[in-house]
Amino acid sequence: MASTVAADYKWSLRGLVGDQYEEAQHKVHERSAERLQRLCFANGGIYIKLGQHIAQLDHLLPEEYVLTMRRTMLDQCPVSSYEEVAKIVKEDLGSTPEELFATFEHLPIASASLAQVHRATSHDGRQLAVKVQHAGLRDSCTADTLTVEFLVNAVHFLFPKFDYSWLVEEIKDSLPKELDFSIEAANAERCRKNFSSRQTHVRGRVAVPEITHPLSSKRVLTMEYVTGANVCDKQALAQMGLKPKDVARLVSETFNEMIFIFGDVHCDPHAANMLIREKNGKAELVLLDHGLYKRITDDFRREYAGLWRALVFGDEAGIKQHAAAMNAADSYAFFACMLTMRPWEEVTRASADHLYLPTSAEGRKKIQGYASQFAREISDMLRRIPRPLLLLLKTNDCLRTVDSCLGQPVNTFTMTARECTRALNEARMREQPGLRTRIACLADTLGVEARISALALMSWWATACPNWLWLRRQPQPAQPPVIVSAV
């Protein structure tokens, strides 16, 4: 496939310039994305996982690839036969599904890249969901990873500026963990414990299905069966009397706490892994599929919190400082663009615009243009940044997609600023406990709240007076991000 794609690009774009080149490039992007989609579906497993990852890389790949994968990879996965499912259950648990459960539906209620879910009933009447791994994945894991590595290397050989070896390294690390459902069970238990603790501000509003450990193994995971609406189903939310903006706020608060407070992050939060149900008149978020987690150190959390607070308030010096701590000093500006999905001049604008106004289509296109122009430098940066950050970038992209589909003007940046400040203050209190530090933390919190309120007022004024907003924006020419070659 790699040679076919390469030949198509070289043949279709030869000698073209200007608008003709752009049009031809768009068509070859579409053809190549469809070829990659067919390859992923034909091979399943790790290839579907790769396609799902591509579906979230708005900031690095042409939109034709992203949109093609996003249309199909999240909810059109292959299905194993019941005979294969029953064989795996018996091999791992010692008995057939009919012996282990009072009822076990032969047709799955959902299928994903690595497993599918069947509805069942326990002998004591509990409603269960049984997740069974697709046959052969553990045996083919190493060979499939080597094949993907070959394809990535082939693309790099044909197009030297595109080096995605960092993606292969991440797959090598994360895939074996995702194929061990005992790890997923442990992740789910920690997540439930975190959101039941006194540290969380969303206690009682985040649920995790309870695991049935005696009926679980490395390839079978039995859990509580839960119902709810897809997080992006606005019609279902309306029927429950829930507002999309409240759901968006809950999702943002939940994942900000995971990242900045607990340091234990669900790194695959696409729409299919989040359900919403009504509880006491409010939204409750149900988190599914806990296979891909990243646990981050206190030092990393502190740097990442400092970086995000600098991003939220357009603090260029702070962005440079914390980007340098993450080995992205040479590409700090595009690094900021990747995290916020906003052009550099919007990130550093000393006003409310970069906080409150949605990213324009022009802005997204500009960032994709940066990614194409500086592909070599960006690939080098992605190899150098800390490994946990690679999965956090994916998490950000997944959450951004969910927020976009809800279509509500919820200021997630404001929530991020608050959680970053909370995380930084908690770190200060651990290091220097005492009244003086407590007073300093309180002053810092009040200062952030005052700044957020001022920015909100500016945003309201900008919305109420669009002519003023138009005049204020005119003198700000677009600037490309600062990217210095690492060579």
- Find the count of extended strands (DSSP E, 2+ residues): 11
Number of separate structural domains: 3
Helix content: 55-70%
Low-confidence stretches: 350-356, 469-476
Oligomer: single chain
Radius of gyration in whole Å, from Cα? 24 Å
Distance between the termini: 32 Å
Query: Helical segment tally?
Result: 22
Structural class: alpha+beta
User: Which sheet architecture does the biggest sheet show?
Assistant: 5 strands, antiparallel
Cα shape: globular
What portion of residues belong to β-strands? 5-15%
> What is the residue-mean pLDDT, rounded to a whole number?
82
Spell out the blueprint of helices and strands.
Layout lengths: L1 H12 L4 H26 L2 H9 L8 H10 L9 H12 L3 H4 L2 E2 L5 E2 L3 E7 L5 E7 L3 H22 L6 H14 L2 H14 L11 E2 L12 E5 L4 E2 L3 H6 L4 H19 L1 E3 L7 E6 L2 E6 L5 E3 L2 H15 L3 H10 L6 H9 L3 H4 L5 H4 L4 H13 L1 H10 L2 H20 L5 H20 L3 H30 L1 H8 L14
Helix pairs in contact: 1-2, 2-3, 2-4, 7-8, 11-19, 11-20, 12-13, 12-20, 13-14, 20-21, 21-22
Explain this structure to me?
With 487 residues, this protein is α+β, with helices and mostly antiparallel strands. The protein folds into three domains: 77 residues, no CATH class; 146 residues, no CATH class; 258 residues, no CATH class. The protein contains 22 helices and eleven strands. The strands form three sheets. Strands 1, 2, 3, 4 and 6 form a five-stranded antiparallel β-sheet that branches. The radius of gyration is 24 Å and the shape is globular.
